[in-house]
Amino acid sequence: MKDQIIETSLRQFLEHGIREMTMAKLVLALGISTKTMYKYFTDKEELLEECLKLHYGGADKGIIELLKGSPNVVVAIYHVYSKSMEMDFGVNHLFYHDLNYYYPELQDKVIKQYSSGALAAVTGLIQQGIDECYFLEYLKAPIVFETLAVLYGSVTRSNVYKEFSMKHELVKHTILIYLRGICTDKGLEIIKELKDFSI
Fold first, then answer.
1. Residues 119-128: contacts with CB within 8 Å, 24+ apart?
2. CA distance 78 to 67
3. Which residues contact 171 (CB under 8 A, 6 or more apart)?
4. Pair 171, 199: CB distance under 8 Å
């Protein structure tokens, strides 16, 4: 029953957003009693944490598979951020909006627990890009990764870019500019083949 509650609640959160779905609405969607719901979860945040574990566990595996199918590191990193953009601003944008603005600490906590494989893979890819001369030789892979994370967070979490409605364009003006900046001539040749990094 607990797993069923988590799976169904995650689908509801993804479809309607987190703030919209109260415990009462989730109980109705599940077709269970309030007593049953509170038997397993003391509040919405505890339930949400379990939903995020399920969600990010699956996303972690998806990103690792995505990286395996990329022909080189520049394309692989481009694919990671394109997929992230698709998730943050695609059909489930209300879910990610609510998560980024109202539950960022919980999101970070779960990502650290359940996305360690993908995070390590991306950092490893950056190092591989340095070793294979796609990225500038003096770069430190963990710093590059953290910089990409901060830039991405500035678009998805802060109010700095709130007045701009074209989120995909914002990524082109932040993360993708940074990615170009860390490339060698060899890396820039790959970027040219990606149709100007159109998302």
1. 119/145, 121/63, 121/64, 121/67, 122/63, 122/67, 122/77, 122/80, 125/67, 125/73, 125/76, 125/77, 126/73, 126/77, 128/73
2. 10
3. 81, 85, 152, 155, 199
4. yes
Do the beta carbons of residue 134 and residue 184 sit within 8 Å?
A: yes
Radius of gyration in angstroms for the set of CA atoms belonging to the chain, rounded to a whole number: 19
Regarding pTM above 0.70, the answer is yes
Query: How would you write the pLDDT of the chain (199 residues) with one tens digit per residue?
Result: 999 999 999 999 999 999 999 999 999 999 999 999 999 999 999 999 999 999 988 777 777 777 777 888 998 888 888 777 777 776 678 898 899 889 999 998 998 887 777 788 889 999 999 999 999 999 999 999 999 988 888 877 777 766 665 666 777 788 888 999 999 999 999 988 876 454 4
Query: How far is residue 145's CA from residue 55's CA, in Å, rounded to a whole number?
Result: 22
Using CA atoms, how far apart are residues 47 and 199, in angstroms rounded to an integer? 33
How far, in Å, CA of 146 to CA of 128, rounded?
16
Residue 159 identity (one-letter amino acid): N
| CA distance readout (Å), 56 to 45, 83, 100, 115, 137 | 16, 13, 14, 6, 32
Classify the C-alpha dihedral 146-150-151-152 as positive or negative: positive
